[in-house]
Every structure is written in C-alpha cells, then in structure tokens.
Amino acid sequence: MIALTVNGEERRLDTPARTHLADALRDGCGLTGTHIGCEQGVCGACTVLVDGKPARSCLLYAHEAAGKPVTTIEGLDDDPVAEALRAAFSRHHALQCGYCTPGMMVTARDIVLRLGAVDEARIREELAGNLCRCTGYRGIVRAIAEVAANRPAAPAAAPRREAPKVAAPAQAPAPAVELPNRIEHRETLSVPLPAAWAILSDPAKVAACLPGAVLTRHEGALLEGRFTASLGPISASFAGQGEWACGEHAGSVRGRGRDGANAAEGMVEFSLSPAAQGSVLDVVLSWRLTGPLAQFSRPALLRGLVAGLADQFARNLERSARGEAPAKRLSIWALIRAWLTRR
Fold first, then answer.
1. What single DSSP character describes residue 220?
2. Domain-wise residue ranges, the chain
3. Which of 44, 215, 230, 247 is buried most, with the most CB atoms less than 10 Å from its CB?
C-alpha cells in the first residue's frame, strides 16, 4: 500500500513496489493528463511537480513520492500562472496534437515562476528536456516569454542550513543563480585538522583528490580545468572556469562548463572541524545539468554519483595527507557505500 498526496488529496494505492509514478497517477488515480511517451525520461511528456519541482514521473517509483506533494496538470486548473500560459499557448498556436502539452505546461510554469522575465535563448535551454514533434517550438517559446515578461522573479527559497562563511572571491564573481539539486554530505576523516586543511586550502591538491578533475590554471580566485564523469556507457567531459574562495577552515568553489550540447554548473561549499579521532568534513554540493545528458539520468542515480564522488574525495584526502597517491577513478565501492549511507 502506497500513500500519496496528489493535487492536495490523500490517495492510498494498492500497487506493486516497482510501479512508476506515471502509472500510479494514470491507473491508480485516474489522472490521465499525465502522458507517457518514451518511458526513459527523455521526452518530458510525463512531467509533473513533485515537492514543487518538475520531475519525470516515468523515472520515479511511486513510493519515492510518498510524503511529498505531487501536482499533475489537472491540479493546475485554478492556478493563475497556468491559466495565463493556457491562454498564451492558444494565442501563439503552441500546440497541435497536444500529447506533449501537459508536460510542457508544467515545465513552462516552472520557468515563469523560477526565472521570471528571461530571453528566448534561456527558455529554449530550459525546455531541452521537453520534446515536441509538431510545433517547431517557436509558438511555445513565444507563449512562455510573453507570460514570463509580466512576472517578477520567483521569491527567494526558504533558508537552508547556513553555509560556511568564506572570503569573497577577488575577481570573476559567480552569478547568484539558484542551483536546483543539492546534497549535504559529512565525512569523518582519520587525519587531524591541520593535515586535512593543508590539502583543502590548496586548489591543486583538491583537484588531485577529486576523481575526474584536472586543474589547468589557478590564478588568484580564478580556476580553469575540466571534469570528466562516467557511469556505465554514459560519459561526459566538461571544460570550463570556476571561482575559488577560502576562509578560516572553510571555502567554496563554483564553476560552469560545457561538453557539446550539455552544460553543467555546480558549487561546492566545505568546512572542516576538529574531532576526537581526526577531523570532520562537511560538504554541500549543488548542481544544475542541462542538455541531452540530463534527460538520461535517473534523479536518484545522479544524486548517488555525486554522493559517491564526495565519499571518494574524502578517502583520497586521507591518502594524500598520509603521503599516498590518491585514486584516479571513482570506485564502484564508493558509490555503493554512498548509496547505502543515504538509504
């Protein structure tokens, strides 16, 4: 038995544990406005809101949405932004067969509320995960731009755990854009704080401890390099720039890069504190991935990869502090350990 909150109503569904949220919504709740297309997370037709954020309901098991509010296209009937978008879609001929429209509308509403007035290039980037075979996207983009132009930017997100206080970078400040994905990770290190901080305060040593990272330039607060990640047959190598900031046993780095049509932006905030048998490393990782690659990744799998990277980084830091060579590739055991600790 799975308990869901769908469009503000409590639903109890007697479905198998491996039932996808899309099937639960359509077959269990009778909400057939959620369309199923590719069933691989690529087309975006099944997009709904889970905990207020767009999610591919064909990639989520129904039980993963338990305890989180789920909103389908039917739940947006009285929503003023969705109402404005429906009218704009009609004016700009932004639909033909209509199969992609429910998922497109959910994503469009998120763009309007989260970003406010933005240019058409940004709207097209945000729509990368919603495919339409009919319209050529022009009407869709124009409809969203029209509604977004009359909306203020979304209000600031609710306060989260206070980030480590660090000195502001001396140059090339990063844009203050909310990154939608976030993981907080804590590791207990077997090395004392001074030895650990000697590594964490040096960008070159940090890069050496992070599997897949290569630092090609460090000049003041500016960093340049690339980051390569692979999981099974999926691989990407992002080249770009970042900004480094370092304070009293705390710091941050924010960067952005591209790999062809894929783009990534991320931020790592870290702090180090003493412990009885060594030290404690707290890491907050935030990221945003756009382009085709983002659509092939199950959300839980991507989060598991990030958590595995943090775990492997901690182990490499310990090795480096002991004078040993850090591992160059992400260990499958780090992924398994990170997955188990997050269950």
1. T
2. 2-75, 78-149, 181-341
3. 44
